[in-house]
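Example 9 (inverse folding). The structure is encoded as follows.
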């Protein structure tokens, strides 16, 4: 039994919009395979040892062989970057890729301690498209776990690799993958007092990097829509702060409005139809929403304090924000209509900022400042279970992966006495506080935001 699924591939810097067709078949389990517990990584534990996985270069004729090796390389890099998988060194392989055929020699893979095996093939089609197939095997149980076939334009091979990595991740962890996603951030150059800041976009692994603005106007705090490939950001065109919407695929830009007292760029509601923002007047800052269809603005807080950095819960019923209404900068939660405001941060010391609700709804990420150090942390929506994941001279601005298991933030190094140094880079960390990694960017980077899963 088979069924067809069509996916629209996003544009990249190499190719226009392309159509990928995924052929998903019910592949028959191998008869007589020994009984064994299902291969699975429990990522809810505090620490899971990386699973040894052999990812064989995909086979193909002539030029297809290079594409096959490239695809396997991206899959390997994606899975390794999660900290949950340990790709086995190809030099240890006993069975060759060409000899695997329909069924691997599992004893060869057990001999090198591989618990999972991925192999596939690449074949150019008469119509110019590329057919990419893969299979995932449980080596100990000698069982097939999943397999798919994709038809796409050759220039879109990298996205196919990310989709395959997502399939493997989901099959083994039970959680949605996040490799077929993108990051928008602020690219920074120049001296600390005269920074040139441009909007930049890239795949989550740093590929397909491109700039979305030319640096002629200051841009700040881009935020992705949870439902569309669209961002909102703050730009000082002509010296005045204005909020814009930008479709990152079509480059269509729309001004939402002028907000002279804007203190933070807006964030989208879960349905993408409303934005929530803070605006300052007469020394105080309050939180407002705007309906993007009607442009109607509604005020949610009314205080002489500073309320800022609002972020919706994934169901849209609550908003987390930070405020100094209690004397120190702390985190508060209120209803989506501004009702029932309550404080949730009660650490022994320190100030809290930039809260962001997880797309899973189970955690709120934040920046904490205490005794001259900065931290990225998480807590439950009721304020309990606070955990600090990172610490440095300056860590700030967390953003969630779509599956709610990984955070990206930016880290600034200290400058010397002459103001030199102080580079700002992007980093990722999982919610256990492990697997801290730099996310490579061509120049300095800050204010990252993660896209929703690609359509």
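The amino acid assigned to each position is listed next.
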């Amino acid at each position: 039994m088979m069924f067809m699924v069509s996916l629209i591939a996003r544009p990249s810097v190499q190719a226009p919009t392309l159509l990928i067709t995924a052929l998903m078949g019910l592949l028959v389990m191998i008869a007589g395979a020994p009984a064994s517990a299902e291969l699975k990584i429990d990522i809810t534990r505090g620490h899971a040892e990386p699973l040894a996985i052999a990812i064989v270069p995909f086979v193909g004729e002539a030029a297809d062989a290079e594409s096959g090796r490239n695809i396997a390389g991206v899959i390997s890099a994606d899975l390794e970057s999660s900290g949950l998988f340990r790709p086995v060194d190809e030099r240890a392989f006993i069975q060759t890729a060409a000899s695997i055929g329909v069924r691997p020699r599992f004893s060869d893979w057990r001999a090198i301690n591989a618990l999972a095996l991925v192999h596939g093939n690449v074949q150019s089609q008469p119509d110019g498209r590329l057919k990419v197939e893969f299979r995932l095997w449980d080596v100990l149980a000698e069982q097939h776990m999943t397999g798919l076939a994709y038809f796409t334009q050759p220039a879109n091979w990298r996205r196919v690799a990310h989709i395959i990595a997502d399939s493997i991740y989901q099959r083994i962890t039970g959680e949605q993958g996040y490799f077929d996603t993108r990051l928008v951030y602020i690219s920074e150059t120049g001296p600390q007092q005269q920074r040139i800041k441009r909007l930049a976009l890239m795949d989550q692994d740093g590929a397909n990097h491109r700039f979305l603005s030319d640096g002629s106007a200051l841009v700040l705090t881009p935020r992705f829509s949870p439902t569309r490939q669209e961002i909102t950001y703050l730009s000082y065109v002509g010296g005045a702060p204005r909020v814009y919407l930008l479709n990152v695929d079509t480059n269509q830009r729309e001004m939402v409005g002028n907000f002279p007292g804007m203190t933070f760029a807006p964030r989208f509601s879960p349905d993408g139809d409303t934005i929530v923002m803070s605006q300052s007047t007469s020394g105080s800052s309050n939180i407002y929403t705007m309906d993007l269809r009607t442009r109607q603005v509604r005020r949610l807080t009314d205080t002489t304090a500073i309320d800022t950095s609002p972020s919706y819960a994934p169901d849209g019923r609550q908003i987390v924000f930070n405020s100094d209404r209690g004397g120190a900068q702390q985190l508060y939660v209120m209803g989506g209509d501004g009702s029932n405001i309550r404080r949730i941060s009660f650490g022994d010391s320190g100030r809290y900022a930039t809260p962001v609700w997880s797309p899973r709804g189970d955690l709120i990420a934040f920046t904490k400042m205490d005794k001259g150090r900065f931290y990225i942390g998480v807590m439950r929506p009721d304020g309990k279970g606070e955990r600090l994941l990172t610490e440095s001279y300056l860590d700030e601005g967390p953003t969630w992966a779509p599956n709610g298991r990984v955070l990206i933030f930016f880290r600034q190094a200290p400058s010397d006495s002459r103001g030199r140094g102080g580079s700002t880079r992007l980093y990722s960390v999982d919610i256990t506080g492990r697997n801290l990694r730099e996310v490579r960017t061509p120049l300095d980077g800050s204010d990252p935001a993660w896209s929703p899963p690609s359509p």
